[in-house]
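Re: [help] complex structure
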Amino acid sequence: MSGMSFILAGMLAAATPFLLAALGELVVERAGVLNLGLEGIMALGAVVAFIVVYHGGGHPAAFAVAALAGCALSLVFGFLALGVRANQVAAGLAVGILGQGLSSLIGNSYESLTVTGLAKWAVPGLADLPVVGGLFVQDIVVWLSLLATAAIWGMFRFSKLGLILRAVGENPQAARAIGYRVIAIRYGAVAFGGAMAGLAGAYASTVYTPLWADGMIAGRGWIALALVVFGTWLTGRIFFGALLFGAVSLASLVAQTEGWAVPSQLLSSLPYIVTIIVLGIITSNKRLLKVNGVASLGEPFGP
Amino acid sequence: MNMIARRTFLQTSALAAVAAAIGARGASAQEPLGIALVLPSPLGDVGWSHTLAAGLDPVKAAYGDAVKITLLENIAEGPDADRIMNKAVADGNKVLIAGSFGYQNGAMQIAKRDPSVTVLHASGFMVAPNFSPFAAKYFQGTYLLGMAAAALSKTGKLGSVSAFAIPELITSVNAFTLGAQAVNPDVEVSVVWVNTWFDPAKEQEAAKALIAQGCDVIFSNAQDTPSVIAACEEAGVYAFNLNSSMKSYAPTRYLGCVATDWSPFFKASVDAHLAGNFVGANAFLGVADQVVEVVDWSPDIPADIMARITETEAKIADGSFTPFTGPITKADDSEGVAAGASMGDAEIVAMDWHVKGVVTPLPQ
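Output below.
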């Protein structure tokens, strides 16, 4: 297998944890709330899903439990940020640290155990293509997360719910004035974001790398957060950003096996460098920021 | 902000109180000897931290209630580790085992400040009268596994997933390559440096990338989780690792384990500490010291190769052979070790070049 086909075959799976978490965070941020606790919520989702699979509960139950756990932890953040209107940055960081602590506590006796991942499902016909064939052999979660991407894109573009979420994020006072329950809607968004982060963690610990080790999320929650900004709060761009991150992370490995004349350290840090550049561009371009940014992001709202 | 300042204050005053109590108690004799082991990662069933902790079991067995062992796991390198090590010593521990390279400066400060404390430090280079760095000669074991790998490989391509390009890991890869060449001179070794000590997902992807390139034996170099081993079992290629056996993760494809047993060193150091004649020195320990041993050999290794391996192992143990014996050519075709010469410990611990046969360029 050539390096290129290896990257093509693996990048969707590599991108899935980023993608799921970033899509959830997109909904949260679109509603005007900044949840920085993704890393911890993913870790909690990862450990509970792993435990369910390890004890024979199966993957569907594991993903459900991870979504619930993520939901529950994000509602703790929701209570702090929305209920008592604490500073969202501080509340998010605190919940993130709580999640990481909880995950190492719960996972303590499961350290370094392994489970079996999910079988891959191939698209008939396309899977046999040369070079790109591997792209069409993926596990079910990857296919479902592609569907989720399309669903969230459609939700923001065509549905009333999408409009309401955006209204709540752009101008909560106005949204409230026309009768929407801003806080309740934001709670809903936060819960959804938490559930998605839980699923992202579950994918990481039971499918992508089917083992539990404390700290295995290894910064993927932070990359997901960066992806939302990288994608300027647009679903399509976040999707391509996640793919790019997945591809680059594999490229840094393939570069070495293929002997490309690129330093591996540079490739390892490439996703972060690209994020910084994009952040620089969009924050220096006021027009871009105004068009796509969320006006009330991170601001506490209360009657 | 207020809360944080308050908490720091409380911690500091608690520490001061503990220190004062210890000072007052110091005069009384016949307390059990406190041994504190500080570990960089969670204490799992396998891996580096597990091996260090297991090395203290014979000490506990030998001294019973005369020693009191404290395990401090998952301590990040940096200021936090310094604080925790200081607290461990303030709590009365007299033997401090600092289980990670990054604890070096903090541990050395403790050793200098309090000569009554004996410090053992993993994989460092600093030495003091009461401070011994210790490291394992993994290369002796990886050489033997290289011989086995070359015998079992069908493609003649071997791979290694390695953490960082530092001398300790480079040495292991080089010896692995030399051992493989002793069986099959045409063998090629590819290395993926993942540039992280801990990212199971990335390690697993690296293993898959090597397998996709045709490597059919993978050396998991300094990975604390079974990520690489499990991926190799799934892909049907042989794999081996360092420190503690991961055979249960690869029942059919486990080539062997370069196991480390620190108990002879820990026991000797505690003995010396109690006798009052501990002298800090660089402890670079291998097969001859019974610290390094290859265990769980795969039953698939052909009998004639296994006989050669056993013979080589005996020669390494009695000192009549070392893997880094010339002539060795560097990857850039210059001379590494002249014919007839062999590298000393000081050269080995500073090795920053690949031997010929490692096809991946070394990151600069």
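The mean pLDDT of chain B is 89.
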